Amino acid sequence: MTLIVNLVEQLQAVGRRSELFNISLWCIFGFGVLKATTFILRTLSLIFDLFLLPSVNYSKYGAGKGKYCVITGASDGIGKEFAFQMARRHFNLVLISRTLSKLETIQKELQGKFGVEVKILSVDISRDVPENYTAIREVCEGLPITVLINNVGQSHSIPVPFLATEEKELRDIITINNTATLLISQLITPIIVSTAASSKCRGLILTMGSFAGLIPTPLLATYSGSKSFLQGWSNALAGELRDKNVDVELALSYLVTSSMSKIRRASLMIPNAKNFVSSTLKNVGRRCGAQERFSTITPYWSHALYHFIIEETVGVYSKLVNSINYTMHKSIRVRALRKAEREAKKD
Ligand SMILES: NC(=O)c1ccc[n+]([C@@H]2O[C@H](COP(=O)([O-])OP(=O)(O)OC[C@H]3O[C@@H](n4cnc5c(N)ncnc54)[C@H](OP(=O)(O)O)[C@@H]3O)[C@@H](O)[C@H]2O)c1
């Protein structure tokens, strides 16, 4: 600080001693102090969120009081883990997914282990038909729902240029990630609002975003755009529902081991679903790595640091980040095509 003040004084001495010059220097100095202060505050907030604050208490969302949590894409990966960890927090559940047999197994296990009510519904969300939503309405009608976890999502089977993306894959991604998320949220949100009002607790709508939406991702263009859409939609909804006691959060994640990511072994940057969900639920309502964003959380510590560093340096929309991302996905595509070739030869 003393160094900067000295510099300002020296510049004043040698420079033209006009009033305008002095004002400009103090403006630059003030701007620097403001930038440094906000950076320090964001860094402190990141450290507190990730490493120092205790877990969020879910009694504010009605945990243990017979309230329900609806989870989409709940039969595998991250969604299945949300089901287990919300049951452990004493929420009854509505689990929506495609494969009935997987849902039945999870239902049995959760009811036996945690003594909670578990309703299941098997629908293929990629079919954009009214029957899906009628079925969801029928299962959820009359239940005291306070939490909705919009987890269901689909990505490209392998990185692919936009112009070579098959129409079915493109349509499925948009239908599952966007249309279904919007329509299910329109069905469930009024129930959450009225349950929160009548039970004097809060509601929560948590939607799974992705680093592919945070950082424009060449060769995953449609998936990237669909997750970016969720960022804007979720933030806008957060504003609308703030005075209705409903928290709306978008959870951002880099890779997690699952059948979607096709990664089996966890590492420093790639947690398993259990650890990812545990850090998400511990921190709901806080920013972690997404310090610059309202109603958004990057909960897993290594993802959070990655997000924070990019945002504080080159920025998520920079040419540099875009080029690095492109190179990385080109190499993933080459390896995926080679693997497919090997498997085709085996057959
Ligand atoms: N894994 C990652 O690296 C990663 C990174 C960032 C964000 N995300 C996001 O996290 C969310 C969960 O991903 P995940 O990795 O856990 O995926 P996953 O392991 O592939 O699980 C997807 C879940 O969604 C269900 N589902 C898929 N298509 C469906 C359809 N047409 N109709 C109904 N249900 C359907 C699946 O049901 P069935 O089991 O019956 O098929 C399964 O329960 C997604 O929104 C994804 O975009 C994941």
Automatic annotation (TrEMBL):
Q: Which SUPFAM superfamilies match?
A: NAD(P)-binding Rossmann-fold domains
Q: Does the keyword Transmembrane apply?
A: yes
- Listed PANTHER family: HYDROXYSTEROID DEHYDROGENASE-LIKE PROTEIN 1, VERY-LONG-CHAIN 3-OXOOACYL-COA REDUCTASE
Q: Which residues form the active site?
A: Y223 (proton acceptor)
Tell me the superkingdom of the source.
Eukaryota
Q: A Pfam family this protein belongs to?
A: adh_short
- Protein name per Swiss-Prot or TrEMBL: Very-long-chain 3-oxoacyl-CoA reductase
Record keywords, A-Z: Endoplasmic reticulum, Fatty acid biosynthesis, Fatty acid metabolism, Lipid biosynthesis, Lipid metabolism, Membrane, NADP, Oxidoreductase, Transmembrane, Transmembrane helix
InterPro entries, A to Z: 3_ketoreductase_fungal, NAD(P)-bd_dom_sf, Sc_DH/Rdtase_CS, SDR_fam
Query: HAMAP family given for it?
Result: 3_ketoreductase (MF_03107)
Q: What is its EC number?
A: 1.1.1.330
One cellular component (GO) term of this entry:
endoplasmic reticulum membrane
Cite the binding residues for substrate: S210
Gene source species: Zygotorulaspora mrakii (Zygosaccharomyces mrakii)
